[in-house]
Amino acid sequence: MRMKKVTAMIMALMMTGSLMACGSTKQAVGEGQTSASEEGKVYKVGICQLVQHEALDAATLGFTEALKEGLGEQVIIEEQNASNDQATCATIMNQFVAAEMDLIMANATTALQAAVAATDTIPIVATSITDYATALELPEWTGTTGMNVTGTADLAPLAEQAAMVTELVPDAKKVGILYCSAEANSKYQADVVTEELTKLGLEVEEFTFADSNDVMLVTEAAASASDVIYVPTDNTVASNTEIINSVAEDAGIPIIAGEEGICRGSGITTLSIDYYSIGYRAGEMAVEILAEGADPATMEIDFAKDLTKKAMASRCETLGIAIPEDYELIEE
User: Which terminus of the chain faces fewer neighbouring Cβ atoms within 10 Å, N or C?
Assistant: First the structure.
């Protein structure tokens, strides 16, 4: 009997040890390996585009296509348009924060500023930003933001854009710079271009409007006081090119534009970037953050690499402006 009891106790101890070993093994797997549910995580990304126009539309398209290519079915995208309204931008961003988005894409400066005001923890990838230091009020610029923000810029060489004035309109003496005073990056461009045009011996005057309601009157003032008008990359201008073109055409005043969409709508020439490309690169950066754990605070802002001189043949012909051979014609 005693032998049977001893044998029973040994077997019991062996079974207990076996169960404990199994428990330990399960715990180790849980701590050291990624579960199937984590591997199949679906990321929520909110896109806020300031306003609908050709350039920003292309940037949003590039972003979404890069995101889908990088994450496939592991991403849900919610796209919102703020109709060029600052308060609407803020509302959209607050909704994204409340919905616990994994990442926010801000398309244009006002959208970026609203995103930063709404969250300092959710990663923000921006695009179509001319100067991040200006947009985020960063006194010292190192190429990274040092915060939950990264992205791509749409800044073209402003000195080269300014030089287009004398290249295409060599008899010009007075240049009017037309832009929306509510857009910080437009003011930045205007200041740089004013300095460059002054170096070229031209007289420069700024003509600003606060919103779309004043575009026609301000454009009329600029056309009557200028030999040529320069327009930077400006979202309010981009949304009102028909009005601007109508005024400039009637006055016979050529417009040098900061980007191709504005040029197609109202200008004669531009040194423009590809907005789809900068949007696509921003999408790649978002994938790096979501899938690879990259830190937006240390990711350098990326700039457009393909710049092309372009011209609108029909407007140039109407105004008697010769198009240099190194210019590409914009499809009309």
Answer: N
